Amino acid sequence: MNTRPPEFANPTRNALAAGVAETGGGILFAAGLAMPFAAAALSSVMLTALRTVFWQDGIRLGKGGYELLLLASAIALAEEGPGRLSLDAVLGQERRGILLAAAALAGAGVGSTLAIETGRRYAAASPAEDQELARSAAATVEPSRS
């Protein structure tokens, strides 16, 4: 019997989506390039973790502190801007401000909702389909042994 919450019906797909968001957002974030988009990508993963793991039964103080801190930090950096040593500054395209921080937070909310609802949509997959998806994902990561 599958005891995972509906949004985790396909852990391979969810892990891939989170990994792409974290990797892409992290690269942009570290380079100081397109900071509001980077903040939205990273924040969407943290917001999804908070909503699905820590706050399933409502917001609880003391739950999800690390994820909440990362979410707040990303949004704060979107508001403050990446700084003078960033690619945005070098290219003369540094953007910052409260409206961009709000847009990054809204983008994180949209990304999180899409991830959760997509997971629920695929919740009807049978365990055999789940295992087949996991095998096909492992095959793309590991070279075939002949």
Structure, explained:
By secondary structure, this protein is mainly α. The chain has one domain. It is 68% helix and 0% strand. The protein contains six helices and no strands. The mean pLDDT is 81.
Number of helices: 6
Rg value: 18 Å
Count of spatially separate domains: 1
Spans where pLDDT lies below 50 across 5 or more residues: none
Question: How much strand?
Answer: under 5%
- The beta-strand count equals 0
- Largest sheet descriptor: none
Question: Which structural class best describes the helix and strand composition?
Answer: mainly alpha
What separation lies between the terminal Cα atoms? 34 Å
Anisotropy-based shape:
globular
Mean pLDDT: 81
Describe the secondary structure blueprint for this structure.
Blueprint (H helix, E strand, L loop, with lengths): L10 H21 L3 H20 L10 H16 L6 H4 L7 H24 L5 H15 L5
Helix pairs in contact: 1-2, 2-3, 2-5, 3-5
Provide a compact summary of the structure.
The protein is built from 6 helices and no strands. It is mainly α and 146 residues long. It has one domain.
Name the features.
146 residues; mainly alpha; 68% helix; globular
